[in-house]
Amino acid sequence: MTAIHPQPRPHSRIHWRTPITMVILLGVLVGGAWWGWNSLINSSAEPTCVEQKLPNNRLVPKQVVVNVYNGGAKAGTAAAVAEVLKKRGFHVAKVANEPKGDKIDVVSVRGAADNSPELLLVTGQLNQKALTVGDDRTDHTVDLILGRGYTSLRAKGLASVTVPPDSTVCLPVIHTPQPIPSGQNPN
């Protein structure tokens, strides 16, 4: 015969660890969302370009930033073209293979709009007709992609491009490298 023992009563004690953990996690989530929203709204990011009126209504090479990409031309062609463009006054930001990995048969020039003055100035350096592509970029840099059909630059490229009087042009912000003070490690 088995004795019937009364079952133990469940503890009426409340377990506070789970609700406290949930409140702390909710506070972290709300704090992170608040910080993210403030960072987005109060961004200190520099503008990608600055609206300017051009003196004499002319855009000159020193006001244009160019990226030179090899899109199928002989190795070293992009670097050689970049050196010539630097000598002509352009600011060359990047020299590399075409970022998308595309191989093209012609020369392509990409910029904010297919008729933007900075794009026209870069195409004026070429000895051949280039495929111009406007990609609505906001920084107003120009990409020069050299394909298999690239021949050469003009011996004397276009020195400037006329813009309409009293118009403004959005020019890229050009960062000049600052020298490292003596005795400081850049790494």
Notable features of this structure?
187 residues; alpha/beta; five-stranded mixed β-sheet; 23% helix
Short précis:
The protein is of the alpha/beta class. The protein has helices at 17-41, 77-87, 117-123; strands at 49-53, 58-59, 65-70, 91-97, 107-111, 131-134, 142-146, 161-162, 168-172. The chain contains 3 helices and 9 strands.
Mean pLDDT: 85
Series of secondary-structure elements, N-terminal to C-terminal: HEEEHEEHEEEE
What percentage of amino acids are in beta strands? 15-25%
| Rg calc | 30 Å
Uncertain segments are none
Helix share, percent: 10-25%
Describe the strand arrangement of the main beta sheet, using strand numbers: 4-3-7-5-6
Largest sheet: 5 strands, mixed
Individual helix count: 3
Shape: elongated
Descriptive account of the structure:
This protein has 187 residues and is an alpha/beta fold. It has a domain at 49-172. It has helices at 17-41, 77-87, 117-123, and strands spanning 49-53, 58-59, 65-70, 91-97, 107-111, 131-134, 142-146, 161-162, 168-172. The strands form three sheets. A five-stranded mixed beta sheet has the order 4-3-7-5-6, with helices on one face. A two-stranded antiparallel ribbon has the order 1-9. A two-stranded antiparallel sheet has the order 2-8. It is elongated. The relative contact order is 0.19.
